[in-house]
Write a structure and sequence with these properties.
single chain, three-stranded antiparallel beta sheet
């Protein structure tokens, strides 16, 4: 069986070291389920997506310590909300046609950020390249799965009529 975390961490290390060694300094972006390294190369932005863990953050911060990069900015993200893509594109049709429901107890917290806010954070970090550190980029509101589903339903003038999806059905 393949240990994907170890494999992705190795790819992340090797790729980022190679990019930095070539003179291209990485800007690190951290999601709740993946780590995306954004690299500017010949005027184009190239993303490299790898698994995430505390170890990947330590490796990323090590690039500054080892003087491989001038700075490293890690942005921890939640679910990205956008009317054009992502989770909303999957949830809206389900809720619109009466098939929407919370998962499990519905009490699971869902950290989220709107795509425009995220875009502004990235722009800020790119413009202020002297900044270095780890930043949490999520809404200040504490939102549960049930709250999110109900907010979407309210925006669509719909009611959630189905019971919560049992956790056992999602395994």
């Amino acid at each position: 069986m393949i240990d994907w975390t170890t494999l992705l961490l190795k790819i992340y290390r090797d790729t980022t070291i190679a990019i930095a060694s070539a003179g291209f300094l990485p800007c690190i972006v951290y999601e709740s389920h993946a780590l995306c390294v954004l690299v500017w190369l010949n005027g184009m932005l190239y993303p490299f997506v790898v698994g995430c863990s505390r170890e990947t953050e330590e490796v990323a911060h090590g690039f500054k310590t080892k003087k491989v990069a001038n700075n490293v900015s890690i942005v921890r993200l939640g679910v990205i909300l956008s009317k054009d893509d992502g989770i909303l594109n999957k949830l809206v049709p389900l809720i619109k046609y009466g098939l929407g429901s919370s998962i499990g107890t519905g009490k699971q917290y869902i950290p989220w950020i709107h795509i425009e806010d995220l875009s502004n954070i990235f722009k800020f970090l790119l413009v202020n390249s002297e900044l270095s550190g780890t930043y949490n980029a999520v809404s200040p509101e504490h939102t549960t799965n049930k709250m999110l589903i109900n907010k979407i339903a309210n925006q669509l003038n719909r009611k959630i009529i189905l019971p919560n999806i049992p956790e056992v059905m999602l395994r």
